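Backbone-to-sequence.
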């Protein structure tokens, strides 16, 4: 009865089944043992049906807590020896991403938390190592970014920002029409524009379709845009223009205050 319940909770269907549930009240943990109830399986490599099971490998995954109990899923995971393609490969499981030691539901919660707070805080709440969380974030962000299309991007903002301590800089590029970050790369020299253009192309973006680049007055960015985004007009960010104008007016005031006494204290 409780095995069937946990089967539902994990979203499993035959031939996957929860075989055994072990509750350890002292250690506040619950262990779910899942098995593949079948003598054959489709080949994970070439999808050929009904291939023989070769052997089994023991694997474990951290799952969402059940109330105060830390939950783990265990499975003696079959490897399939395929008579069609000749490969021996491990069955992939419906509850976890390949190579992850966490279930998809755990990762979904971790990623939801990570949008709201620093990763170290998520790790404390979820009681796991922050390295493990970073690996999950990297994997899912990578997967999501692969699907991004920049086919309709025509207006971008380019800016440098300091990262960590010292003199490390990042160049960030935003799609200004949709207010989203589309590229970040180390450095603040002209080669950052080259790297952006290459990445942009690999996401269906067309550098020649970029009409406007908004930026500060960085010589490196101006040179990079001239070379790699040849059709784009450069718009200097109003903030920087006003800052320069203010400096110029003040320079003139300082110069003239010597002969024009009434300019004193008029800054
Ligand atoms: Zn095969």
């Amino acid at each position: 009865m409780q095995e069937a319940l946990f089967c539902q909770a994990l979203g499993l269907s035959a031939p996957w089944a929860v075989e055994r549930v072990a509750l350890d009240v002292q250690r506040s943990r619950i262990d779910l043992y899942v098995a593949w109830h079948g003598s054959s399986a489709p080949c994970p490599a070439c999808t050929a049906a009904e291939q023989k099971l070769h052997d089994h490998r023991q694997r474990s995954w951290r799952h969402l807590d059940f109330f105060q109990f830390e939950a783990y899923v265990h499975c003696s995971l079959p490897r399939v020896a395929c008579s069609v393609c000749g490969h021996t490969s491990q069955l992939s499981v419906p509850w976890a991403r390949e190579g992850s030691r966490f279930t998809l539901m755990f990762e979904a919660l971790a990623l939801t938390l990570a949008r709201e707070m620093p990763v170290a805080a998520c790790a404390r709440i979820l009681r796991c190592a922050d390295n493990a969380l970073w690996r999950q974030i990297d994997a899912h962000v990578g997967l999501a970014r692969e699907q991004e299309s920049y086919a309709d991007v025509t207006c971008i903002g380019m800016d440098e920002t300091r990262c960590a301590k010292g003199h490390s800089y990042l160049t960030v590029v935003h799609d200004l029409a949709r207010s989203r970050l589309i590229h970040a790369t180390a450095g603040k020299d002209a080669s950052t524009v080259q790297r952006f253009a290459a990445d942009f192309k690999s996401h269906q973006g067309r550098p020649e379709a970029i009409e406007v680049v908004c930026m500060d007055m960085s010589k490196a960015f101006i040179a990079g845009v001239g070379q790699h985004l040849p059709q784009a007009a450069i718009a200097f960010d109003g903030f920087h223009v006003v800052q320069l104008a203010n400096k110029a007016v003040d320079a003139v005031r300082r110069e003239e205050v010597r002969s024009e006494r009434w300019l004193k204290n008029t800054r």
